[in-house]
Amino acid sequence: MADESKVPPKPENSQPDAPGAPPATKSTPASPAVPKPAAAAPKPPASLQIPLDNDLSRRYRARFGATILDAVEDRKQHYLVIDAAQLSEIARYSRDEEKFDLLEDYTAVDWPRREKRFDLIAILYSFPHNIRLRLKIPIAANERPASLVDIWPTANWLEREIFDMFGIEFTGHPGLKRILLPDGWQGHPLRKDYDILQQDTAWVRENLGIESGQ
Amino acid sequence: MADTVQDDAMEKNGTLLGADELVLNMGPQHPSTHGVLRVKLKLDGERVRGTECVIGYLHRGVEKIAENRTYQQFAPYVDRMDYVAAVSNGLGYCEAVEKLLNVEAPPRARVIRTILTELQRIASHLIWLGTHALDIGALTPLFYCFREREEILKIFEKYCGARLTTHAFRIGGLQYEAYDGFEKEVERFCNDFERHIQEYVDLLTGNSIWIGRTRNVGVLSAADCIAIGATGPILRASGVKWDLRKAQPYAAYDQFQFEIPVGTNGDTYDRYMVRMEEMRQSRLICLQAIEKIPAGPILGKVGKVLKPPTGEIYHSIEAPKGILGYYIVSDGTTQPYRVRIRPPSFVNLQAFDKMVRGHLVADVVAIIGTLDIVLGEVDR
């Protein structure tokens, strides 16, 4: 990362968009859906994302076949792209057979231009093997993936946060409701079409008695 | 504070209040909730039968802010999460972005980072010890702990000009060289600190009130911890000898000798013992590190404009409170496409309900203290 790129940083957030503005607040064109080797950055190593073919990924493929959509290595870290339909089975297998006993983190990424709008990202850690594996689960906007709470109880709050921030609903969650934002809040702030200056003004007016929270 | 209104959430969960039960609302404005944690306690007399944590009062949308800042601009924001361990937050973030850029901080920077991070761990544990003891009724340790913490903050202030939200590190290394006499001051602190730990031990470890209030309170088994995702000293107190600094070393931890303290019962007393030992170990790491600060540059080859290649990274460190992870997605521009922060306090707080059930109201305060949460990090 030499000094060669003298592009000034983007003016941050100069356009206070009205709600409902076009998706993707960033000015960059076409952020690729699943990072493909070909789409890697202009500079150094031509492809940072290379196909993964190790024992672990082979075991997953042997067991789940076409449900494992892709296996990728990115900067020495491994992830599997899996079909949401088999999420519970794969998760259970990961915990029981592959000994990924800790769900270290569970989150989502919004790709508004993609057909399957969201990626769920489950970061698994195995205490016995001291390795990490990411599961990437592409889901459509109206899809309701299975909850992982009965496999890893820690998913409870993590899924509530995903619901809060992205509006993804999980089936089988014991009490899916907002966790960080107030219950009556409208909108899901980490979606790309939710502008950084946007807020639920009606809620703010009613509950805080002020015109704006800014 | 008492609020006997029936609670709809608990009703919905099928836990209707019995005739003798009431709901007590604790916080968000309560000194022993360590910030703006609000807990609804379902009580049967003095016994806790169920809880519900209400969080988010300090939510600032840190992850959203990250998507609208450049990589460097976002760095100071992470200090505002766990604001009593800002240096640790910064280390995790800088290392994550370095991994994303595929650059490494130079050896000198890594050792100085390690020293400052370990001092921060001691400072964070001192806040925990002081407030935890205060919550349980021991007033004196608070003053001792803050006295030592002050020495650490003075070192930070001399190093980077700030005491609390330090922004001590930069992506690629360090902005500032260690000041003249840095090693000496760290060494002096470490030498004095040995005596000071003994003072806390004299006040608490054998104190029968302390033991009575902490033994067998808030017990978590190792399996419980892993299922609920509790990490850090909480996990170690339950007997799991695991520390990311050893398991997957980062910064310069692979160069230094230290032990991972573990407990056996997983109760509040064990967590106390584990954190006390961690402070001793951090002190030893600092003493080893000041002997071995290599010469050389402090900032790696990082451009003024950071444009990490498209892709993603997850990097986590052993923060004073547990695993602190950063998941960053780059779309090749100067701003991250997505930054997800895995906060240890948020996940650890999930264990609260399990720990509290069946205990007395007075133990709730002890258990919030032993979880060592910081609401800036829980709510982000």
Description:
The complex is a heterodimer of chains A (214) and B (380). Chain A has 214 residues and is α+β, with helices and mostly antiparallel strands. Chain A has a domain at 47-144: 2-Layer Sandwich (Beta Polymerase, domain 2). Helices cover 19% and strands 20% of the residues of chain A. Chain A has helices at residues 55-64, 87-96, 155-166, 201-208, and strands at 49-51, 68-74, 77-82, 102-110, 118-126, 131-139. A six-stranded mixed β-sheet of chain A has the order 1-2-3-6-5-4. The longest helix of chain A is centred in the last third of the chain and has 12 residues, at 155-166. By secondary structure, chain B is of the alpha+beta class. Chain B has two domains: 8-54, no CATH class; 62-379, Cytochrome-c3 Hydrogenase, chain B. Helix content of chain B is 48%, strand content 13%. Chain B has helices spanning 8-12, 62-67, 71-78, 86-101, 107-136, 140-160, 182-204, 208-214, 222-228, 233-237, 244-247, 268-291, 344-349, 352-356, 361-371, 375-379, and strands at residues 21-26, 38-44, 47-54, 169-170, 173-174, 311-319, 322-330, 338-342. A three-stranded antiparallel β-sheet of chain B has the order 1-2-3. In chain B, helix 4 packs antiparallel against helix 5 (107-136), helix 5 (107-136) runs antiparallel to helix 6 (140-160) and helix 6 (140-160) packs antiparallel against helix 7. The radius of gyration of chain B is 21 Å and the shape is globular. Chain B starts with 7 loop residues before the first helix and ends with a helix. Chains A and B meet through strand 4 and helix 3 of A and helix 2, helix 4, helix 9, strand 6 and strand 7 of B.
